[in-house]
Amino acid sequence: xxxxxxxxxxxxxxxxxxxxxxxFAVSDRSGGRIxxxxxxSGMTSLTPAQITFNLLQGAxxxxxxxxxxxxxxxxxxxxxxxLKAIAARTSQGASRTPEASLEYQHTGDVFLEVFCNPNxxxxxxxxxxxxxxxxxxxxxxxxxxxxxxxxxxSQYLDAVA
Length: 161
What we know:
The chain has helices at residues 66-91, 146-160; strands at residues 12-13, 22-28, 33-38, 50-55, 58-63, 102-107, 111-116, 128-134, 139-145. It starts with 11 loop residues before the first strand and ends with a helix. By secondary structure, the protein is of the alpha+beta class. The radius of gyration is 18 Å and the shape is elongated.
């Protein structure tokens, strides 16, 4: 009979909706909070809607404006087109010319950074993003699939439209 050994590291799962005073929340598989960051004095909860990023092992939800989501979507779509161009050139036998990395940054209720080096991925479907989400109390750095984050941003934009 197999026994389960508890992990020393929490595994992320879909994040619960942050309460009205939270900027973002992260949960483990059992639904317990790993961390939450709260609004400081002088800040209002009447800020942008929540976006959910579905990660490889869980999810994170945080406040994000529709304008910032449009900018992120445009940057991700540009990355997809560059990855497709790289794949097309490579399949035709052309030598690979280095492309600039995606380095998206947004400062709002939390600081969001999305990074991807297109030179190491064979296609948009294999590409992964390095995502950092932080404020003065918590920092989350993780990997996510490009296609999943693009889908998450599109769903968010559809929901707030």
